[in-house]
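Pair request: fold both.
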Amino acid sequence: MGQHDIDPENLPYHPSKLERKEYIGIGEFLSLDMRTGIIDDVQEFPEMRKPSYKIRVDFGPIVGRLWSSAQITNYSRSQLIGRMVVAAINLGEKTLPTGFVSQFLVLGALDADGTVRLLEVPDGTLPGSTVA
């Protein structure tokens, strides 16, 4: 499965339809750099085929601010600004057909229909904290 699709009729992400993934080992998991960050800018991204935003997230003093494209338009821009998120920041940059460079992947759980629900982070967590 690559990019997800939103499909309210077929519910492709219903837990009863999801196969278990292969074992990867703890070393591969620990090589993933997952951090917390605060969304500080959200821009419309109408050029994308699927409804998306451009989001900028502040990952604290070491990583700084990075940009990504995210299919999270089920949230309003005002619901996103100031929200703490979890992201994978070392997957490499991806240049989209529009020329926009996506630098991280924001993490969320997929509803059965494919709608993204962003992961919640406890109050008091600092931007740039590693996720273990």
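--- second member of the pair ---
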Amino acid sequence: MDEEPEDIILDLELKITEIITLNEKFKKENLILIGEKNKLLTELETKTKTVEKLKKKIDILQISKSLQVSGEDVHDARIKINRIVREIDNCIALLNR
């Protein structure tokens, strides 16, 4: 009967040691995953900014193409551009609210 409690204690010590080892392993793995997540978030943010810049370039190219194709005189083109700039300013003002 004396051996049983000792065996139980040794078994518990082994299990506790295993749990501590696994806990440390998972903490390290968690830190690695957090680092990877932060790296991916930074990369995503960079890619999102690039996409936004490219969308703006596409809009500018579409506007310039529409002005070229239309064949309107310079005065009408300036009026169109001023209207577009005002719309952009309004959008920016709404976003800043």
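Observation on the second member. Residues 3-71 form one domain.
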